[in-house]
Amino acid sequence: MNAIEKSVIHDISLAPSGRQKINWAKDHMPVLGRIRERVLVEKPLAGKRVAISLHLEAKTACMAELIRDAGAEVVITGSNPLSTQDDICAALVSEGVTVFARYNPTPEEYKSHFIMTLETKPDLIIDDGADLVTILHSERPDLLEQVKGGCEETTTGIKRLLSLEKSGQLKFPMIAVNDAFSKSLFDNRYGTGQSVWDGINRTTNLVVAGKTVVVIGYGWCGKGVAMRAKGLGARVIVVEIDAIKATEAHMEGFTVLPMKEAAKQGDFFVTVTGNSKVITKDHYEVMKDGAILANAGHFDIEIDKVSLEELSIQSEVVRKDITQYHLLDGRKINLLAEGRLVNLAAGDGHPAEIMDMTFALQVLSLLYLHQSNEKIGAHVIDVPYEIDEQVSRHFLESLGIQIDELTPEQTEYLGSWEI
């Protein structure tokens, strides 16, 4: 069967619209372009099948097609039910990529798409949130034998993988792409910072300047969200459990408060923790009328939706991607994108130039893993520094930016203990 016959998507006739989006993104992803020039000749993944679980939008499609150009058969599914773009799925299928995904599937359909992806028996995987890995190890161990390893995109996924490794149950190597410098410093900070506010602004169409924004979690993603909120003219409050990160937020000029106090002051709330129930009943009870809640963590568990529903006498969709909850005392609380990733469920995700670096890391890490999986063993490892540095170097070159190099004398000095 060809890709069209094997795939499960919404509508193949949407392919031309998806191709326009992919071509636009590809024109702004020069690092992937450099890698494509090499793999088109070498075909390093010839004869291999690669399964991908990521947000299915234009930038992801560029990476999927690059892996196909490297010789692999590519199978892809979405890592979030509201971030999948049906026209992108159609465009990929029309170019020979097998796709199991559609926008807003039922929970049962969403789970089945993961299973169908894994039942193609991939040799390598690219995961987002460790969903594929978790299903392989818990529900479908019969499919483990073929998999030689994979790469993980997110902080949440790496936490799950490290837990799996610590328990001694991880069966193949995984590369922690999220933790690479060229990912965490740029994608998590600048990408998340811009795309979260893009999602919030286009969804609410409200001014941010003069408002109070509460950022819950001050990791690299939280830093980006807080930085961009400040740039939009907001007063920013940071909520943290880590004293070092809280100190950094204070030094950056942000107010640091416990969540119970911040809940009384916020106009916008953005969760960026990777943890569950960081906004709960206690916080809803003291929030302002009209408060707006958004999540920028991987799963829709950071905002306690069950408690919000229990406190409400009515809920209604008042605008695309905004559900308004009416509380007994007359206050209204607005939840964006059902508490899912607001930058992708209610926006187009990170800018193309940012994802260019991240997906270049994914591709180069996948090629490294393909060559070295037996040597690595069943462990979670960092992206080799040479790959990390190569991606940033390619990015600078694409902008025409040059940097200095050490002279032989300087190299010798830095390698010696003598003055």
UniProtKB/TrEMBL annotation:
GO molecular function: adenosylhomocysteinase activity
Every S-adenosyl-L-homocysteine hydrolase NAD binding domain range: 188-349
GO biological process: L-homocysteine biosynthetic process; one-carbon metabolic process; S-adenosylmethionine cycle
A cellular component annotation (GO) from this entry: cytosol
Subcellular location: Cytoplasm
UniProt-annotated binding residues for NAD(+): 154-156, 188, 217-224, 240, 275, 296-298, 343, 350
Full protein name: Adenosylhomocysteinase
Organism expressing this protein natively: Shimazuella alba
